[in-house]
Amino acid sequence: MSQGPRKFCFALGACVAIASPEAPATAYTFTPIDVPFAGVVQTFALGINNGGQIVGDYLDSSGVHGFLDNGGSFSPIDVPFPGAAGTEALGIDSGGQIVGCFNCAHGATTGTHAFLYIAGTFTSIDVPFPGGFGTVANGINDAGQIVGSYFDASGIGHGFLDKAGVFSTIDVPFAGSSSGTFAQGINTGGQIVGWYSSGPGGEHGFLDNSGSFSAIDVPFPGNSGTIADGINDRGQIVGTYRDAAGAIHGFLDDGGIFTSINVPLAFDTKPNGINIASQIVGSFGDARGLHGFLATSIPEPRSLFLVGSGLAALGFGAYRKARGRQAPKGGSPGPAVLLRRLVQRRAHIERRRAA
After folding, report:
1. Residues 6 or more apart whose Cβ sits within 8 Å of residue 274
2. Structure pTM?
3. 34-65 pLDDT per residue, tens
């Protein structure tokens, strides 16, 4: 079992919290999200903006509907066009602009269209490429740039970027011509994440940084497929991976450092979006059904350690100045020695983990 923060008290009489080296790198508190309308049987949280507004979809006896969760106040989102059905709200920017798709329930592509929703007004979005169909808008950034996916006449999936109505195709250059590319999220800096397929069971995530592509594959043992779904303005990426047994887990990629995300007691966990505060939304399944979730990170021990070390160093400096002498050379080790040993212990553990 991981140990909590330990407290070290110095001669100043102040106590500084320094995290145990054995504590996990990142921990989360999970809050379930269930749309409170009568008859709802499933809820999926799919996007979150920097203000904490959440979008997603829910299922009731009449079909699939989008929703907006504004601080616990829920509003349904249904595209009003004739014949429209199966609305899914997939992304939201900090201004409250929402993107998604309709006629797209359960992965349908025939008759599927994307939409942009601004202050009560819906606009349909379809890629202008010859033979393109099944347009889905998955993400929008604070500059109003939209990413998503579509299929060509041969049934191959492609990503797209929509900049104020100017569309460009996104294809991972090392994926192969018969593989599909699907753009899922975009941050304010224009970095795009998504996934591509290299055949059955061969999903890989990708990061598109101004046209420079890199693959994202979770490095955990047994991983058999990675999908990148969301990216925030700090470059943190969330998504899912499949283990050797076929179970679905979430992940956070923070500068190449991967953390597994699993809702307690859930049989699968699927993060979909992340905001500037590192709040993560997604869905999970348990014995009661399918639900959305909001995950809020608990300050990681490494951060606590660095803060504690800095405060301790300042305190020890004041201690030396007040006493007018150096730290003791004999007997019990002084505070500086304790801190140095802790730093060395932390570095040793990190080297073992990296080996």
Report:
1. 48, 230, 231, 232, 236, 237, 238, 252, 280, 281
2. 0.78
3. 999 999 999 999 999 999 999 999 999 999 99
**Domain harbouring 174, CATH code:** 2.120.10.30
- H or E segment to which residue 186 belongs: strand 181-186
Q: What integer pLDDT is reported at residue 296 of this predicted model?
A: 95
Buried b / exposed e over 107-134, threshold 16 CB at 10 Å, is eebeebbbbbbeeeebeebebebeebbb
d(C-alpha 2, C-alpha 260), whole Å: 16
Output the pLDDT for position 175: 87
Query: What Cα–Cα distance (Å) separates residue 212 from each residue in 155, 208, 234, 310?
Result: 25, 6, 18, 38
DSSP helix, strand, coil percent of the chain (3-state; round to 5): 15, 45, 40
List b or e across 44-67, with b for residues whose CB sees 16 or more CB atoms inside 10 angstroms: bbbbbbbeebbbbbbbeeeebbbb
147 strand-pairing partners: 139, 161
Q: Containing domain of residue 151, as a range?
A: 27-301
* Residue that has been written with the tokens 């994307």 in this structure: 114
Domains contained in the chain, number: 1
Q: What is the C-alpha to C-alpha distance for residues 209 and 172, in angstroms, rounded to an integer?
A: 12
Structure confidence at residue 27 (pLDDT): 86
How far from 21 is each of 4, 9, 14, 46, CA to CA, in Å? 10, 18, 21, 34
